[in-house]
Structure formats: C-alpha cells, structure tokens
Write a structure and sequence with these properties.
Shape: globular
Strand content: 15-25%
Helix content: 25-40%
Order of helices and strands: EHEHEHEHHEHEHEEEEHEH
Radius of gyration: 19 Å
Largest sheet: 6 strands, parallel
Number of helices: 9
Bound molecules: NADPH dihydro-nicotinamide-adenine-dinucleotide phosphate
Structural class: alpha/beta
Length: about 280
C-alpha cells in the first residue's frame, strides 16, 4: 500500500514558514502584494481565484482581484497588465486562465514582466535561483523533496505536454537529473512507456486515465489532474484506489498537488517582493 503524499499538511507547513518570512519582510518595510486578473465568468476560475485570495490573507500577502467582463478585448487586458507592470506597489501579477476566445493567452502571458510573473509561465527553467518557477510543477518537486524521493537517475514519465504543466514538469525533473520521457495523445503504446516509470506524473485532464496496469510496482505516482464531475466531486487522472495498491507513494485528489500549487504561488509572490525591493 502506498504512502499518501499529503499536500494539505505540507502546504500548511509551508504557509507557516511563509508567515514568518512575510512578518520579517514587513519589518523591513516590504509589503508583498499580488494582483489577480479574472476575465469572464468561468465558474471554476472564480473558485480558484477565491482560494488564492483567501490563502494570501492567511499568510499576510496583500491581494487584489481585478474582474473584467467576458467581452474584454485583448488590448484592454494588455493595458491592465501594463499598468500593473508599472505599479511599484505590485509584486506579483497573475492572469487567471483560461481566457475568453478573443484573447491570445500567449500574448498576454508574455506581456507580464518576468519578475512579476508569479505563475512562472514565462520562466525559462534555468538553474537561476532568482527565477520564479511555474507553480504546479514546483509544487510537485517540493512534494517529492518532502517525501524524500530522490529524482536523480530515476526514470520519470510525464503524461501531458502542456506549456503550463507537462513541459515545465519535465524540465524540472530533468534539471533534478531524472531521465525524462514526455508522453502525449500521439504516444504509441502509452502503457508500455508509463510502466517503465519510477516516477510517473499524470497531467492529462481525463478522470482515472492512469489505471493500475499502467503503473510499475513501487512507482511514485503524482496526480496533477483535476476533473470536475457531477455534484462538485473532483477526480484525478489516476485511478487512485487501484493504483494505491501498487505504488510506493501517491498523491490524492483533492488534497494533493492542487494545494501545493497555491502554496507555490504564495512563495513566488514573497520571493518577487523580496527581490524587487533589493
Ligand atoms: P491540457 O489539456 O493543456 O493538456 C493535456 C495533455 O494531455 C496534452 O498534452 C495532451 O496531449 C495529453 N493527452 C490527452 N489525451 C491523452 C491521451 N489519450 N494519451 C496521452 N496523453 C494525452 O491540460 P493541462 O496540462 O492544462 O492540465 C492537465 C490536468 O491538470 C487537468 O486536469 C487540469 O485541470 C489539471 N491542472 C491541475 C493543476 C493543479 O494545481 N493541480 C494546475 C493546472 C492544471 P496533446 O498535447 O497531444 O494534445
């Protein structure tokens, strides 16, 4: 039976550490501030933004939510981002995805100053400690570290190649000296590849997509997937009940990677605030 990697406990621990760091910064006159821009009325996004705002309050980060209507033009959004780029009181800018159809996500994300991009989407994943790491993959790395799972030399398989999760996840595992394979919808005989994995990361967006027969005995299984089912039930990309019996470590959904993503957002905001005032 696998050990559960408890994202809730770890994120609470990190938040406690952050509270202390923020209190120190405030004594130096540094007041970390995050601005979240929410465009349109996607109900899942509204929940995510509320949670981020609440978490900021818990650790002492000042946060503001700017809401813009569904029909907002790209130019209007770019103007808001530019204003926030120029505003010295703002340390972190987060534009909640997805954006309405008329707006090109890449153009908007690229317009955020890298030193304020607390989602870490524009990060190049270098060994530079000052870079703000993409939150979800950074949260996964933190969970692996905390569980004492060494990545170096391990076979890592990431299922999913999005710019937000799959690709930066693969880059961070590679940076940690893992031997990394990235799978996607065109991968042939996916199960044969995933069965090779010592560390398997699922970021597909399909409920219970990773079944027990796709997992090697003793593998570490990380479930990034968040699939909203009927009656507000959340399911991961991994068939938790069956895979738990084979894996050595596994993350639950909910209570796993999602909470770590928010904790990493807070961490990036604090780091951005500390760096921008140097
Ligand atoms: P995307 O839809 O952007 O990417 C999904 C990836 O899965 C694509 O690369 C796609 O391949 C691949 N894929 C789809 N079907 C298959 C298949 N049959 N076999 C192999 N690969 C397949 O999703 P995201 O990366 O944005 O998100 C993935 C999941 O993670 C979602 O459930 C999302 O809600 C969740 N998420 C969770 C976060 C958290 O904090 N826990 C944060 C962000 C996302 P291809 O490229 O070929 O289309």
């Amino acid at each position: 039976m696998a050990t559960i990697m408890d994202g809730k406990a770890l994120s609470l621990k990190l938040k406690e550490q952050m509270k202390q760091r923020i209190a120190q910064l405030k004594q130096q006159g540094i007041n970390p501030k995050l601005v979240v821009v929410l465009v349109g009325d996607n109900s899942a996004s509204q929940v995510y933004v509320r949670n981020k705002h609440k978490s900021c309050g818990e650790v002492g980060i000042e946060s503001e939510v700017i809401t813009m209507p569904e029909q907002t033009t790209q130019q209007e959004l770019l103007e808001v981002v530019e204003r926030l780029n120029q505003d010295e009181t703002v340390d972190g800018i987060l534009v909640q995805l997805p954006l309405p159809k008329q707006i090109d996500e890449k153009t908007v994300l690229r317009s955020i100053l890298p030193e304020k991009d607390v989602d870490g989407f524009t990060c190049r994943i270098s060994a530079d400690e000052r870079d703000l790491m993409p939150c979800t993959p950074a949260g996964v790395m933190e969970m692996l570290r905390y569980a004492g799972v060494a990545v170096a030399g391990k076979r890592c398989v990431v299922v999913g190649r999005s710019n937000i999760v799959g690709k930066p996840m693969a880059a961070l595992l590679l940076q940690a000296d893992g031997t990394v394979t990235v799978c996607h919808s065109k991968t042939r005989d996916l199960a044969a590849v995933t069965r090779e994995a010592d560390i398997l990361v699922a970021a597909v967006g399909k409920p219970h997509f990773i079944t027990a027969d796709m997992v090697k005995e003793g593998a570490v299984v990380i479930d990034v997937g968040v699939n909203r089912m009927a009656e507000k039930k959340l399911l991961g990309d991994v068939d938790f009940e069956a895979v738990e019996k084979k894996a050595s470590f596994i993350t639950p959904v909910p209570g796993g990677v999602g909470l770590m993503t928010i904790a990493m957002l807070m961490k990036n905001t604090v780091r951005a605030a500390a760096q921008q005032t140097i």
